[in-house]
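User: Can you recover a sequence for this backbone? Please restate the input before giving your answer.

Assistant: Of course. Working from this structure:
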């Protein structure tokens, strides 16, 4: 059967699912379609024309190469297609966004036919996705006196690709749709268990919220054809949990507008709102698509006559509605006044949603066009030896005389691009920065690959120190979906220049190590900036930002990112940690004490948490920095003592060497380069040339939080509070309860020790507890299943060397096998211990979950509805989060233990302990 016939068969199958034909990305199918177009008598010619014009993916896909070449033939008169004139062919090229289309346009613009060259030049002036080879062709032609090349470069220097775009409308009408009450996790917009379909945008769009919600959105659009539907988190924050580009894509697919009539299922300009605004990393993704994120402030805390916050019987602030955003409400955004209106009534100021920079993103249809546009303008002006025309909003530069720098301000100043020498920037400044480390994970990686193709990138930027493509989110089950997607992803990323978890050539053992753990190891400079395709990209060295797949692609392609310098909140500790407590309890207590100190206000949200942890090496400190995603912080920075940082770097060197020994090094010797950088950094610290990063004593913080270790008297559990009468307070990560709250009675159906929140010490705790309990009770009997998943293979190797893995094997009823990976997800659990493959496992919830309606106690990070466990018809599923010893004991007992049971079980066990630095860590 021909590829075309196979495609037609696939179309019929998709029709049964209510789907349109899948976009074409392969050269072979595109070539067959073109052959049928050239054959005037071909029965499939009309359909082939439609597929060629409207359903072929642009950028650097192999199909785009074939399409661009055929359009060139049409323009030159070498092929005659009555339905595609030369003018229409140029229009199609203008929508192909770089790669082969730019090569064709340059061929035509620099060719001998002056009329064609003039048309090609006009199209090129609208394009921004040009790379070094493209610019070099223009530069050489200009230097040789080519007038067309000069005109194109002059247009770039004036940024006409931007200035000739239509202005943003002064008024944007919106109609509201409340997607949910309370914080909205990106899982609602793009469920983790549908991750396999993310690169098939139309199919994945079917999973947003519910089919009923999708029909309601369509009905609103029919009732208000001149308005955009705004998705709202009522009494909550929109987009918590992760960046989830697929979530924004889905919102845009249902509520936005088409980016191009010739590019299928790529929509832009979504509008989202939340009573408490938009999660920072999700807002970045909204910017990528030229959308608008609004902090609605439609509920406020009630105050008494003296201005004090009025609280309910639980001590929570009582909220009052300022204005209604009930589904179907109509409003107007005035982009000049930067206000939200209900008729003539002004509701809120929208200046933060409509900054000059964000207005540029909206006008250009997304932030990529602006990033690349600024770059091409600068290069063109340099070639012409002129100053670029001042077109774009100037970068916001805030410098406060006499004020010291926080740690993040120091890092941003070091890595800033385009800032005048000697200029010192403080929080609030907008900055372009070089990115040192980039991570792509496997359920968003296919989208990152698509973004790289769409922006015509073919090789990683040389200024990136290291980049890694993981396989951890699809580690649990090697099913048909993973088998179809993952090898293709690994091949693309390997060829692009990343270190990949799986070797496309099959020469080294496939790794499913958790991406955050690998990035934590390959970050070898605490002054580094890290961008990763996951919200838990939060290293204990450097400052790391979880990002959408598009921002990851941009960092890989350009080695840069653009963002404001965030404000910081300083976290320090006092007192002494009790010997029966685990560091995870300190992490949870930090959140609880912060909320208590600030009257329920989350001062961490949208800011950097600068945690003065000092004495914990990178593996253990990561437990804190990782959790800062759940604190809704934008990122975190761990301030370490010199000797602790050296210890962490030595550990990192060893882990990187293991990667080299396994054969994961690439032709650019990236991994060896990281070891060399680590050695250099260690020497700088030892010699005193450049001590470990610390803030200045005179740095200014949004807030300072002091955590009292003395008052942490019992293990702390993050509870989703699934039955709270106030729906907005469920699944928030903010309900932190002591162990005694449960009275030793709450039933536990499954325990999970795993995910990025655990380190080698946690797995040793498991083995030590099992030995301890057997000694105390004569045997170990599980009254609930216990699933254990080490985050990395090297941890298992180290446990084997130290004897702990033998103990875990002895108590387990199941152990993973890489030679025989599971091909289907486990749906039932026995009361045994499962030793699972390294990776995300239950925490991700995209492959395996607990049984519906279960109560799960886990060391992981997620307690969102449906993530680890779904609801059953008769019972809400709930995922409570706790330390490793609490989880292990709960699985053995089948219930949450009381405090005394817990203390007996951990007696003599080496828990993850912590002591504050003896002196303040400031520079």
């Amino acid at each position: 059967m021909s590829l075309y016939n196979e495609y037609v068969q696939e179309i019929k199958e998709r029709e049964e699912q209510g789907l349109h034909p899948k976009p074409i990305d392969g050269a072979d199918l595109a070539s067959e379609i073109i052959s049928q177009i050239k054959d005037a008598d071909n029965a499939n010619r009309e359909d082939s024309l439609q597929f060629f014009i409207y359903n072929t993916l642009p950028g650097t896909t192999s199909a785009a190469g074939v399409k661009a070449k055929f359009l060139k033939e049409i323009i030159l008169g070498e092929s005659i297609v009555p339905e595609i004139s030369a003018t229409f062919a140029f229009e199609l090229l203008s929508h192909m966004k770089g790669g082969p289309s730019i090569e064709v346009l340059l061929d035509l613009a620099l060719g001998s036919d002056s009329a064609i060259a003039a048309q090609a030049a006009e199209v090129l002036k609208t394009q921004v996705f040009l790379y070094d080879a493209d610019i070099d062709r223009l530069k050489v032609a200009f230097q040789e006196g080519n007038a067309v090349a000069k005109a194109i470069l002059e247009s770039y220097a004036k940024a006409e690709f931007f200035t000739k775009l239509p202005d943003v409308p002064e008024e944007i009408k919106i109609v509201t749709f409340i997607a949910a009450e309370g914080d909205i996790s990106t899982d609602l917009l793009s469920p983790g268990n549908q991750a396999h379909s993310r690169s098939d945008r139309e199919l994945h769009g079917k999973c947003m919220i519910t089919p009923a919600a999708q029909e309601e959105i369509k009905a609103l659009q029919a009732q208000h054809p001149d308005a955009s539907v705004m998705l709202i988190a009522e009494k909550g924050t929109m987009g918590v949990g992760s960046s989830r580009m697929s979530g924004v894509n889905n919102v845009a697919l249902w509520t936005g507008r088409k980016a191009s009539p010739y590019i299928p299922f790529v929509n832009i300009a979504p509008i989202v709102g939340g009573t408490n605004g938009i999660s920072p990393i999700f807002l970045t993704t909204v910017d990528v698509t030229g959308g608008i994120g609004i902090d609605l402030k439609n509920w406020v805390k009630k105050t008494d006559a003296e201005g004090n916050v009025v609280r309910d019987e639980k001590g929570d602030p009582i909220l009052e509605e300022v204005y209604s955003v009930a589904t179907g409400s109509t409003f107007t955004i005035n982009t000049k006044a930067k206000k939200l209106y209900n008729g003539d009534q002004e509701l809120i100021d929208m200046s933060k949603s409509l900054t000059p920079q964000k207005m540029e993103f909206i006008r250009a249809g997304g932030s990529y066009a602006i990033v690349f546009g600024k770059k091409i303008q600068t290069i063109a002006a340099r070639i012409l030896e002129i100053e670029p025309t001042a077109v774009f909003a100037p970068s916001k530069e805030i410098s406060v005389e006499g004020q010291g720098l926080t740690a993040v301000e120091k890092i941003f100043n070091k890595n800033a691009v385009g800032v005048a020498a000697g200029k010192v920037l403080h929080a609030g400044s907008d900055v372009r920065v070089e990115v040192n480390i980039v991570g792509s994970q496997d359920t968003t990686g296919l989208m990152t690959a698509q973004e790289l193709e769409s922006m015509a990138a073919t090789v990683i930027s040389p200024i990136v120190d290291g980049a890694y493509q993981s396989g951890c989110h699809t580690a649990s089950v090697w099913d048909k979906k993973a088998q179809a997607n993952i090898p293709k992803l690994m091949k693309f990323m390997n060829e692009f220049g990343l270190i990949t978890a799986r070797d496309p050539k099959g020469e080294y053992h496939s790794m499913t190590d958790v991406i955050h753990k690998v990035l934590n190891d390959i970050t070898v400079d605490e002054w580094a900036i890290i961008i990763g395709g996951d919200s838990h990209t939060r290293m204990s060295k450097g400052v790391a930002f979880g990002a959408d797949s598009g921002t990851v692609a941009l960092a890989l392609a350009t080695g840069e990112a653009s963002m404001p310098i965030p404000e910081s909140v300083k976290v320090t500790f006092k007192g002494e940690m009790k010997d029966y407590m685990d560091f995870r309890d300190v992490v949870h207590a930090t959140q609880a004490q912060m909320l208590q100190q600030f009257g329920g206000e989350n001062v961490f949200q949208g800011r950097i948490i600068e945690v003065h942890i000092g004495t914990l090496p990178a593996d253990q400190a990561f437990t804190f920095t990782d959790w800062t995603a759940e604190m809704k912080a934008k990122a975190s920075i761990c301030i370490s003592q010199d000797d602790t940082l050296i210890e962490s770097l030595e550990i990192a060197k060893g882990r990187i060497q293991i990667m080299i020994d396994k054969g994961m090094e690439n032709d650019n010797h990236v991994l060896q380069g990281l070891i060399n950088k680590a050695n250099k950094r260690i020497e700088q610290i030892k010699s005193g040339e450049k001590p470990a990063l610390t803030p200045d004593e005179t740095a200014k913080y949004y807030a300072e939080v002091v955590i009292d270790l003395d008052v942490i008297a019992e293990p702390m559990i993050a509870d989703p509070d699934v039955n709270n009468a106030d729906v907005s307070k469920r699944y928030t990560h903010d309900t932190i309860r002591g162990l005694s709250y449960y009275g030793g009675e709450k039933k536990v159906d499954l325990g999970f020790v795993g995910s990025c929140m655990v380190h080698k010490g946690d797995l040793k705790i498991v083995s030590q507890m099992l030995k301890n309990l057997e000694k105390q009770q004569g045997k170990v009997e599980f009254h609930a299943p216990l699933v254990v998943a080490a985050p990395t293979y090297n941890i298992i190797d180290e446990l084997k060397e130290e004897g702990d893995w033998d103990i875990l094997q002895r108590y387990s009823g199941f152990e993973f096998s890489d030679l025989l990976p599971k091909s289907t997800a486990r749906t039932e659990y026995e009361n045994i211990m499962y030793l699972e493959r390294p990776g995300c496992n239950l925490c991700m919830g995209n492959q395996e979950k607990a049984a519906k309606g279960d109560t799960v106690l886990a060391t992981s990070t997620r307690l969102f509805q449906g993530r680890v466990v779904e609801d059953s018809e008769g019972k809400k599923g709930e995922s409570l989060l706790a330390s490793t010893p609490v989880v292990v004991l709960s699985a053995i007992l089948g219930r949450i233990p009381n405090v005394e049971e817990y203390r007996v079980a951990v007696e003599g066990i080496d828990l993850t302990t912590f002591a504050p630095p003896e002196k303040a860590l400031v520079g």
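That completes the design. The mean pLDDT is 94.
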